[in-house]
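hey all, quick one before standup. I had two proteins in the batch that finished overnight and I want to keep them in one place so we stop losing track of which output belongs to which input. First protein below, input sequence then structure tokens straight from the run.
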Amino acid sequence: MRFASQTSSDGVTEQPFTLGEIPGVLWTPEDARGTRPLILMGHGGGQHKKAPGIVGRAHHFVAEGGFAVAAIDAPHHGERPKGEEFDRIATEMRAGMAAGGNPAELVATMHAFLAGQAVSEWQAVLTAVQQLDHVGSGPVGYWGTSMGCGLGVPFIAEEPRVRAAVLGLLGAATLTGVAARITVPVRFLVQWDDQMVPRAQSLALFDAIGSAEKTLHANPGKHGDLPRFETDSALRFFARHLS
């Protein structure tokens, strides 16, 4: 893991890094020492590791909760090159949506393609970050909605170090079998008027999650209208399960 720089503001230190070909960012409390809980944060489709929502939540989790937070560019996103197969699937997805196709089914094809690479990358980044003295091998959480959920569900199902997760804004039927393997506490977010994900599919994915402790948070509004108070709620959720 190679760090490119380090800046601090409002008590939060930001360190961009690369791990092999994976670009990422680590946020920690300023002058952090010793082991602390770590939250991995997955961004949405077409976004990147420093999308405003990711940065805002990361600063909040670090400043208010004392967590470390790491985010990476998903395959074919952000600073990463876009391959021919990705371009083909993206073109077909946009054409399908323009023709009135089911957005959830079209997006599921993209997520399945990306997840094959993303799961192993998240595992490698988790291992590397936990070797840092100011993070350590403490408890781990995962936050990801929309594509962050689509890539997060298979990652959480495969990774025993993750102990709690905030997921949602997704309902792909292709994830139900994998979701059944998740057993950690889950907070699942639904936008009741989501134009991208049919409500019934979101509820079906929530129902498929195998966790004994899972909570559904439904709010009015469209796909991108997630209320800001859900960040405070997520902080309390992670504090309860990771601290």
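OK second protein, same deal, sequence then tokens:
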Amino acid sequence: MAVIGGATGELVVFEGVVSLVAGPWIYAAVGLSVLLDVFLPVLPSGVLVITAATAAAAGSGATTGHVPDILALVLSAATASVLGDLVAYRLAWLGGERLDRAIARSRRLTTAQERLGAALAQGGGALVILARFAPAGRSVVSLCAGAAHRRPRDFLFWSALAGLSWAGFSVALGYFGAQWLGATWLATAVSLTALFGAGAVAAYLMRRPAAS
């Protein structure tokens, strides 16, 4: 019996993973993961989105099986992102004095709430978009916006823009990474590194003192 090893074995394993995420259920899986990671930031929603986009690139010339649609991936991830934000926002809105006290005890949450309020009051929501890329930033901003009873229409607009930006960026990383580097572990690793790098930059920018 021939033994598959080396680069050939890795390719077979990777193709197996790609076929696993290429089923029609992938949109529901992506949507659920993105929706829930506002409460559980440890969920690998970005990893799942990029892997699905890589599968789309790998199967773009396939004639059998289901190939994830790029536009559907972006829309499912962006829609789930907005829904998760709104659920967290609404729960924080109804949280009452207990949540207010919890925010008051945290310098990070208090600062985020103040900066978010100033950004929305001035008609700008760059902080909401940055938060979507930063680890746990989405959770902090959504909860602070709800606790401070910011106007829903203001928060919804920027949440939608943030979700669409994050989803489009993540899908593009996975798809074009696979197009340029081939549908391999290397392409996925490079795409994920770029996504985590963007998150680190967003977190740094969020921590910077607001300009006076």
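Flagging for whoever picks this up: The chain is about 75% helix and 0% strand. Residues 1-14, 61-66 have pLDDT under 50 and may be disordered.
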